[in-house]
Amino acid sequence: MPIDTGRIEAAVAELIAAIGEDPTRAGLRSTPHRVAQAYSEFFAGLDVDPLSHLSETVDLAEGETGEAVIVRDIEFRSICEHHLLPFLGVAHIAYVPDAKVVGLGRLPRVVDTLASRPQLQERLTEEIADAIDRGIAPLGVLVVLDAVHQCVSSRGPRQAGSSTVTVASRGKLSETSSRAEIISLIGGPHW
Ligand code: ZN
Predict the structure, then answer these.
(1) Active-site residue flag, 33
(2) How far away, in angstroms, is 36 Cα from ligand 1 center?
(3) How far is the CA of 165 from the centre of ligand 1 (A)?
(4) Is position 119 annotated as part of the catalytic site?
(5) What is the crossing angle of helices 106-115 and 121-136, to 10°?
(6) For residue 10, pLDDT beyond 70
(7) Which CATH architecture describes the domain 58-187?
(8) Among 21, 75, 156, 172, which residue's CB has the most CB atoms within a 10 Å radius?
(9) Does 83 participate in catalysis according to the annotation?
(10) Is residue 64 annotated as a catalytic residue, yes or no?
(11) Alpha-carbon gap, residue 48 to 113, rounded angstroms
(12) Is the pTM of this model over 0.90?
């Protein structure tokens, strides 16, 4: 279903009125429209199949299998479904190819599509792992997300420096030893 921007605009005007502000004053007049545009962007992944980004794969030649491919620091923005506030961070993705690999630029698209929906970080991590598992059929997948949630940093506990790390793994990369090796390779300032 396409995003109904007119409905978002009406809802935002109502929200502004509900906090006791005047939605018709100069500074707020265009706000419902701007928010509707932003929401269209935030939730643009609802109608997109993440597997569509993984439809073009490259077959590996015999003997070319086995070593992990790691893409680190894929920046993402998602919206927490409990508060409709953004959470921002990076995704690190590793997979061990079996018969095929995918263009490295495809992985950030999978992340962006799944992140552009009302989300929970835990579920987003699992959904990215599932999409790669189904789309590339690798021997193993490991996904690590590290994000700062505005519902934690700007309201409630107000922990501006606190980030949340979630991990999802499939196949060979669910094994403790392989997983530890990949996590040490991901390394970097977030660890
Ligand atoms: Zn939240």
Answers:
(1) no
(2) 20
(3) 15
(4) no
(5) 140
(6) yes
(7) 2-Layer Sandwich (3.30)
(8) 172
(9) yes
(10) no
(11) 7
(12) yes
